[in-house]
Amino acid sequence: MCGRPTKERLAEGALPLPPLCRWVQRRDESARQNFPTFCATLNAANNGNWIGARGTRSGIGDRAMGIEVYQVRGDIMELVFDPREEDLRVGESLCVREKETGRGLIVQIMEFRTATYPSMTRELLRLALAGNEWAAEALRQQDLSPELLANGGASDGVNGLKVSEERNLKIAVAKIRRTLLSNGEWDQWDGWIPHRDVEVFPVPDDEMFQQCVELLGNPLELGYTLRGKPFRVEGRHLEKINIITGVKGSGKSYLAKVILLELIERGAPCLVFDINREYIHLPRHAVDPFTGKVLQRGIVPLKAGENLKMGLRQFGIQPFITLMTKYGLPEVSAVQLENRLYQLFAEADAIERKRGRPYFLSLDHLIELSEQGQLVPNEVVNNAIRTRLQAIKNTGIFASYPNEAVDFRREYQKIRDGGALVIDLSDLSYLARFGFVQALLEIIREICDEEILLGTNRFPFVFFEEAHLYISRNTISAIVTRSRHIGLTCFFITNMIGGLDESVLRQADNLWLLNVPFEDDVRHIAKSALTDEQTLLSYVKRLKRYHALALGNVTKGYPIIFRVKPLKGINTAGETKYFFQPTATLPELPLRSPETRPQTQSNGGDGSSQSRSLFGEFFDGGDG
Ligand SMILES: Nc1ncnc2c1ncn2[C@@H]1O[C@H](COP(=O)(O)OP(=O)(O)OP(=O)(O)O)[C@@H](O)[C@H]1O
Ligand SMILES: [Mg+2]
Across 5-14, 46-55, 162-171, 465-474, which has the greatest mean pLDDT? Predict the structure, then answer.
């Protein structure tokens, strides 16, 4: 940047004015006599980090804006503008481009501050106090009044200049995101900053999309940008691990539904673990009963324990053991049962092969064996197992006869070319859910393995609403680690931000953030390392209703704020039951304020405290 100026150069006014001064000059010609020396010295005082920018008009791209660069500190650029002339928004991207070379920076607005002339004086004071002789000299040259010095520059005037005019100026604090190369491409920012002779342009949405949103022919339309342009992401970049989070009621499930419906539309097979019956009213999958032709892609609702029951063999040994331990079967007994089940399953396989038709193994069969003392050798263990088997039978998730069992794989085939199986877990007890979901996850894994084997690669997209309520931490970690290898894509939708494991956050390919007003939650999310904490604090703490921040592979790591698409004509409502019915039209309620933060959010735990309070009649089932 500009070198340290000599006193002679300062006296000659060799350095151009910093932009704020020129703003002031434009507004008050009477200030002309007072500013040059002050500003030039100020420029030097800041070690040359002041960049002058002329807001000239340009024929290139969009119009050059009436914005001046105030200063650059680290990766933060401060821009001065008149809000009456420029309508800037938090999250908006700007291009600060050198006139000469066409090289520049892409910056994104993080927040706004009010600019006043005395604020510059305060900056001088700060520097002077820190021992900067140039700042001290600048202050001496200004001949500041004792009152001004006493209150740190908050006076009504400096050097006879009225501040009231400048109070209308604003400073946009922007983060430097990318370097703009002379050929128009964006590159990772390497610390370079432009000369003082720059112009500021808005970055058109199309340009931002071209640079940050790579569309490979599978666009999913999720909403609109701040300027109202459709916001589309590439299906391929959505794959693998996604986290949708935000405070309660911020629109997480709504965004998940938007993504789900777009995926369905593009022919993706999807599964939703629906804990609150929120997805069951989405448009149904419709098939012509005569031709088998799909008339409309949509959802197939399956209710666990009702029209979704499984046989023991379909359920699988490991999920069954998980279920038994959730119901309190001690580990030693579980090992004995596991061994016996392997034996029984092998016998069933043999019978099946011999008969040449499926052999159905039911829960009643196990109960019978335990009653006869033939399940495991030890009678006490037999009894312990029997009581659990009876409790599990009551959940209704096991079929008693072959026709009662739903072939999950056959259901999956219905939606393999576009559609969603919505698995309603709402009626299952807290404990039963764990084993049931694990059994389904095993089947999903097998489906993925087969897709790989066949080379067809139609891998499912699985939506987990509040996964901590039915999947153990270990299982979540296993899913996250293995999904890349088996082709699975997951969406974890939760408001228990503190409960999101760091390992899961770090493996996230995309973050979808809605309003998160609590600073410690934001800090936790920042561990994903998809962007810096400062960016998250600036954006998600203040996200407007129905707006989301997308970050990750879908945006090449560039934070993009968008308004989630409204799903017109689609019933997105869950089935929350109310006692009181509204009799008057009420104004919309604001989102929950930080002051009313629930205790469970800050426990830093896994959400189990909430689970325990909600399901207090159950014991802590451990992390099986
Ligand atoms: N983009 C949107 N457009 C229109 N309405 C929306 C939008 N997003 C959310 N809503 C509405 O706001 C309300 C809350 O949304 P939603 O249920 O998705 O929030 P949530 O974050 O999932 O809440 P919870 O934490 O309770 O699960 C719903 O009535 C929903 O219909
Ligand atoms: Mg929700």
Answer: 465-474
